[in-house]
Amino acid sequence: MMALSVGGLGSNLPVDDLITKLMAIERQPLQKLQKQELTLNAKIASLGQVKGALSSFQTTVKSLTDPAKFSSINITSSDATVASASTTSNKVSPSSYGLEVTQLAQAQRLVTKTGFASTSTAIGGGSLTFSFGEQNGSAFVDNPNKSSRTVSIPPNATLATIRDSINKANIGVSANIVNDGINGNRLVYSVADTGVQNGLKITAAGDNGALSSLTYDPAAGASANMTQLQAATNAKLTLDGIAIEKASNTISDAIEGVSFSLSKVGSSRVTITQSSGDAKKNIESFVKAYNDLNKTLDDVSAIGKDAPKPGEQRPTSPLSNEFVIRSIKTSLRTSFNTVATGLSGAVKLPSDVGITFDRSGKLTLDSTKLEKALKDDPQAVASLFGATAQPTDKQISFLGSTNQTTVGSYDVKISAMNYGVVQGAAVNFSSPVSVGAFDLSIDGVSKSFSGLPAASYSSATSAAVDLQSTINRSYMGVTGTPTFPQLVGANNFAITVDGVSKSGLSIPEANYADGDDLKTALQATLDTAFGSGKAVVENNGGVIRILSAGSTNSSIVTMGAGLEFAGFTSAQTDATRPSVTVSVDSATGALQIASNKKGASSTVTVSSGLASLGFADGMTNTGKASVEGTIGGFAVTSVGSRLTGNSGTPIDGLSIDITGGATGDRGSVNFTRGFAWALDKALTDLQGTNGPIASRQQGINTSLKLISKQQTAVSQRIDDTEARLRKQFNAMDEAVSKLTALGNYVTQQMQAFQNAKG
């Protein structure tokens, strides 16, 4: 800008006004550049708005690429005050269960019998050892999953100090002081975990027994140093008539994929249903999100519809007539009209599930058509939107993929399972099939069998059921080898069957001549204790076997102390026994025998006798640490039962779970990419560094830099022009002033001459 210069003082000409008007003309190019700058900045702001709208829409699109969005599991309890339930897996099947809770799991609470006058009176020091377990008769059986914990008590500790020492040790037992107003201050122990195996036995050491009043021996009964306020108990319930006993009120292993939370004694019915309601809501949200995006695109590129007034231009939005908006709309519409890669069947396009455009470009949803598609084939709708894979083998499930996974159908070949398993040849059951004596070995333990319960079988399924039951029951139970005759005097023993513990049991004092006599006496006692038919006692040539009457993996017998006369030892159990699952291959109809143990020590060997069921003599298989195999002939990474395609291959990131079955050809996995996946990729490209938005932003920023340079140059030129004009006008003003003075002088001289002449 020029410095202030006041002209016309000599000539009386309006110099400043003249220069101002001349400079207004000179500034017109600068004003044009400033207007262009405002227009371009408005475009940059609008492009940012478009990018934000695309990002928001993409968030909705991404949610539809998850197949789980198209099928939800709902679980309800008829009386949630008794028990509530939740699902832990999408693999849960629709069903209904009757639940009867007869006892809740509780944690033990103990209080000292001795009261202390003050919490600050010195008691003594030493240590307190807390053991967790269960009293069985005269023996305290430690919880195998919890080690004893010792808390150091400082010398001359007060009741308050002892309380604080226990709480700071964080041993799973909390201590509090209660003043009952009669006996004084009493220490209360509260165990954190519920269940009978979390009962306490507390011993003290040091300081001449100063801490003895704070100890507890459950075997002492009423004479113990502490009173039991609440006993440690297990939760007891029946599920569709099946008795279940657990240490916790939260039960997640009774039904696969379902977790129960027990609240009180009573009955309830738990119902599991499968619904596509969430899928409809998600698609409705998708349609709304697209229309919101489309409105944003229209708003930033709109051209006024009304005719402009004379001399005015038609109003426009910042991005009107911009190619970038047309490019975005074209890309999105192309995604909607392109058949999703790899799809077959009736659902290939969004329009097949009721998603179409109206004449204005707005997305619409035909709810009736969508609901029908979801009802007829929810998996097809899921495949339309997301990246999914359909295994032909029912014992293979799709876990996930990456952006690098290539669409296609890939054969699955399994060379090793993570458990021992053998598969026989398919057998024709059109004529009844009989099974005689056979021999096999499970996890290294060999057994001989006299045959199966039925004389013959007319289906693979019925044969599989009896074969599994026969094998598993042969490995169940605990065995003792007493000597006979056996003189049994006063006795007191404990035993746990299917999680239910009983102690203080006995058989009549007598001289038992053989195994049958002892078996009869034990069976009568167990029937009285557990109920008839809950536990079974067998005599096999003088070898006594006690087993659960159940046939599941939770049918376990554990011995307590006191049955040494029958050849049993304390804590003897069949919890780690071998067991198998016998199934029928869905593709071939052949029978499979699989060990339920995982890893390299899991083996199945059919030594002889099962040829009628398709198993050759000597057939054997040993498990591996993880499943091994290929997908589409390509190498994979194995972890447990999961196979994942390696980087650099067409199956890069494709992950499947081998949930069962045997080795060999396991069908194929057809991997497809749905419309939502393709749309998500298109949205990523539109917003990427090489996309149309970034390209247009770069072009505008280049123009802004050029305009900035032009503005600088024009501003300098304006300043120079104004300086030049002011210099010229000042010179003119000075010349005019001199001429005026000269004229005045000449006038004066002529006037003087005239006066002298006259």
Automatic annotation (TrEMBL):
Cited InterPro entries: FliD, FliD_C, FliD_N
Domain Flagellar hook-associated protein 2 N-terminal stretches: 11-108
Transmembrane annotation, as ranges: none
Domain of life (superkingdom): Bacteria
Flagellar hook-associated protein 2 C-terminal domain location: 232-390, 668-740
Localization terms from the record: Secreted; Bacterial flagellum
Keywords, ordered alphabetically: Bacterial flagellum, Cell projection, Cilium, Coiled coil, Flagellum, Secreted
Matching Pfam families: FliD_C, FliD_N
Assembly: Homopentamer.
Similarity annotation: Belongs to the FliD family.
Biological role: Required for morphogenesis and for the elongation of the flagellar filament by facilitating polymerization of the flagellin monomers at the tip of growing filament. Forms a capping structure, which prevents flagellin subunits (transported through the central channel of the flagellum) from leaking out without polymerization at the distal end.
Name of the protein: Flagellar hook-associated protein 2
